[in-house]
Write a structure and sequence with these properties.
Elements lengths: L24 H6 L30 H4 L4 H10 L5
């Protein structure tokens, strides 16, 4: 049951819904300027979680490789624009 007042909306341009634990090569092929490592996982700034594309953040398996849902959720909470 949802807790009263716990729901909110985020104003975003795009959300990329991803399932699975391995990198999809289409991400790098269709996103100009996105840096990925040799395994196809997205490279991020560890402090902000921003990718090489300004305003684009990443977390979860596409950054770390196969890991837990808890780590992916934590990555979402850590993402923030640089000061």
């Amino acid at each position: 049951m949802p807790a009263p007042g716990s729901e909110f909306l985020l104003d975003v341009d795009t959300v990329i819904y991803a399932l699975g634990t391995t990198a999809n090569p289409i991400i790098a092929q269709t996103t100009p300027g996105l840096n990925v490592n040799r395994w196809g996982y997205i490279e991020i700034d560890e402090r902000t979680r921003m990718t090489s594309v300004a305003g684009v953040f990443a977390g979860g398996d596409i950054v770390t490789g196969a890991a837990t849902v808890i780590l992916a959720m934590g990555a979402g909470k850590q993402a923030r624009a640089p000061c």
